[in-house]
Design goal:
By secondary structure, the chain is mainly α. 75% of the residues lie in helices and 2% in strands.
Length: 441
């Protein structure tokens, strides 16, 4: 990942800003004025918005489309509570990851490298790379399906075009972090608009939506498998690593008080970005429930091409096209973010760095193989998300251990309630994964 501009905020002085691009320099100066109290209200928060929006892309990637559509069509509104719970967990986890980068100036993989024995470090690196491959598979297949839905392009050719688009987005780093953040945020906005239209056209039962969002229920092993898939698609291991890297050098506080203020602003960034991602996921599952489950079409959501056709048939007014646009925006943006995360993982765990473009080319291969052998792409999306859920503890446990360490965190360590919540989330995820292994094997 391109080196982000390092700044030091103290006594209204920004050190090192002479190397910043003009747009970045304006952001850094504005951030300094926010920390010193010269900017207040919404204007004070604006310079800090961005990192969480990049991370949030992973929470609305094609894997979410697959698991939410499958869950909604098969079980109606029943799994809405899983989506809500997963997004609340995501807020907690991403806030801790952002705080780790702000407090230490290092990413989560870098701290793992410094503090764990070398065999453990290599194990964590290998599993993180496998998780990255599963992530890339979902993102590439999803974007290819989007192009296929919109233009009828064969899936293999569509996957190659997806790679070209991802290269273009990654190239925006040459113009500074703000350009990349704005592009990613714009693509998230496109997904918001698309599913805002879809959910209101679907005219769901809002009473059922409200009830199932807050009252947990499950119905057999298959529903638990889908719940795990939703969890794996929502709480993404690779962006737990990435978020700490996005904040470690973006704006650096010169002292504990400055870092604490920076984290408070970044916390707003997390709540807004993860809140938007949560609303999108709820809208996805709600739309699938209203369109397919209510008509007895329980298996339609397992195939995203059929989903687009069903939207077109039952909602009309180019609803299938709107779905395809949202899926394409999701796949291209999340593919770029996944590549950045892979770079952070490799550089942090084993201190090796390769070009993001070479990494993008390498990680395209598994997705191209899956598409080339004509494996059901929608099934591949759901299975990849279940696999992802098994990688969450290996990122989550080190994150909790580090953010509760008062010496490491320099005054920004977790409070007692945050630690309890974090341990509860980790225990829940590990327990669910053990249950899935038992049920499967």
């Amino acid at each position: 990942m391109a080196e982000l501009v390092r700044t030091t905020v103290a006594q209204s002085v920004v050190v090192g800003a002479e190397n910043a691009l003009p747009g970045e320099l304006r952001v850094l100066r504005a951030a300094e004025r926010s920390i010193t109290g010269e900017r207040r209200g919404i204007r004070a928060v604006l310079p800090f918005l961005g990192p969480a929006f990049i991370a949030a892309v992973a929470y609305v990637d094609p894997g979410n489309f697959a698991t939410n559509m499958a869950g909604g069509s098969r079980y109606g509104y029943m799994l809405l509570w899983v989506v809500l719970a997963a997004n609340l967990m995501a807020m907690l986890i991403q806030a801790m990851s952002a705080k780790l980068g702000i407090a230490t100036g290092k990413s989560l993989p870098e701290i793992c490298r410094d503090r764990f024995p070398l065999p453990v470090v290599y194990f964590l690196w290998v599993q993180a790379e496998l998780i990255a491959m599963a992530t890339d598979l979902a993102e590439f297949v999803g974007a290819a399906l989007g192009l296929n839905i919109l233009f009828g392009i064969p899936l293999f050719a569509a996957a190659l075009l997806t790679g070209v688009a991802a290269f273009a987005i990654l190239g925006l780093q040459a113009w500074g972090f703000r350009r990349l953040e704005a592009t990613i945020t714009g693509l998230v906005g496109l997904i918001v608009i698309a599913f805002g239209l879809e959910v209101f056209r679907a005219d769901p039962s809002w009473g059922s939506v409200a009830r199932n969002t807050f009252i947990p229920s499950l119905d057999g092993r298959e529903s638990i498998l889908l719940a795990a898939g939703i969890l794996g698609a929502t709480v993404m291991p690779h962006v737990i690593y990435l978020h700490s890297a996005l904040t470690q050098k973006r704006i650096v506080g010169a002292n504990t008080e400055a870092k604490r203020k920076i984290f408070h602003f970044e916390l707003v960034d997390v709540v807004i970005a993860m809140g938007i991602a949560g609303v999108i996921n709820l809208a996805m599952l709600t739309t699938a429930a209203a369109v397919f489950n209510s008509r007895g079409l329980l298996d339609t959501g397992s195939n995203l091409t059929q989903v687009a056709g069903g939207f077109e048939q039952y909602l009309g007014t180019h609803s299938g096209v709107i779905f395809g646009i949202a899926l394409l925006a999701s796949g291209i943006s999340s593919s770029s973010v996944g590549t950045l995360a892979g770079q952070v993982v490799m550089q942090g765990f084993i201190r090796r760095k390769i070009s993001v473009f070479l990494r993008r080319a390498i990680t395209m291969v598994p997705a191209l193989i899956v598409i080339g052998i004509h494996f059901d792409p929608s099934r591949a999306l759901v299975l990849s998300q279940v696999f992802l859920s098994f990688g969450i503890p290996f990122a989550m446990i080190p994150l909790v251990l580090f953010t509760r360490d008062k010496r490491l965190m320099n005054g920004l360590a977790n409070g007692r309630l945050t630690n309890y919540a974090a341990f509860a989330v980790a225990a829940l995820i590990i327990g669910l994964n053990v249950f899935l292994l038992y049920q499967t094997f």
